[in-house]
Request: fold
Amino acid sequence: MSISLFNNFLDKIFSKFYNICYENYKGLTKNPRWLLMRKIARFKTGRAIMIFLFPHSNKLYSSIINESNSCFPDVNVDDVVNTLKTDGLYLGINLPQDIVKEIVEFAHSTVCYGNRKTNMGFFYHQKEQAQIKSGKNIIIASYFNTSGLCPAIRKLQNDPKLLAIAARYLNTQAVHQGNMMWWSFSAKTTYYEKSQAAQLFHYDIDDYQFLKFFFYLTDVDDQSGPHICVRGSHNKKKLSHLWLRKRETDEEIIDYYGSEFLVKICGNTGFGFVEDPLCFHKGITPTHKDRLILQIEFARTDYGMQHDFRASSLLKCI
Reply:
């Protein structure tokens, strides 16, 4: 075995061990109920049992305002939900350009945090200096407290059309579970760095049922980190995907699902889509241009684990 292959093998072992330890530590110290859900929800039968035992409210729209007030008047809720049920993915929920402009201006005028570390703050235009000063390879940079700082993002997380889609798909009144907005930087990365930046195939377990809406805030092509989703994989996984949950290689995914089920999502600034994150998915590491993306998540239950809230006292610049 060559040195590079051996190092890659060690990277995979370390990444898997770290992720297991971190998940259990975080769950036990912050929310054991969330940790229990993470153990059960990977199994379709487990999800069905928990949803049956705890059905939540059937009044799907009791707290949803008139859909005519939505930023997405042309989106048909039934079309989106029906496609999600079969494909786990729906493309074309696009942001109005005035909303795009407001969020992008916010991103350029607000501190982001390298590798999601609260002590690695910098403005986007300072990323090269931040990389040098920190002495670390900065793969991504996230924003915190977005709903409190950016009215446009707060408007989107309360958008009646997004809430209606989530409620109809989840078959219960949807709750906002959190936002994420982050830059993915063009860089050379190790397996461990790709794993930590969600740039290897994986599926999420944030609740027994949940949805994520994604919006590109930069133009995204083959060279600037397109998102890839494995269509239909929310309903189909082999046993090793369930019992030995880990980051999967491209070869492993293609061997099982076939390349024709991989949907590479490119689009101009403002392009949006919604995904059932139980589908296998990943972001490709950008090679030439940085990518900025916004994620808004809805679920049956808010465990308080997905929000981007951070105390201002913790936030430090490099």
Summary: The longest strand covers residues 175-184. The chain is about 40% helix and 15% strand.
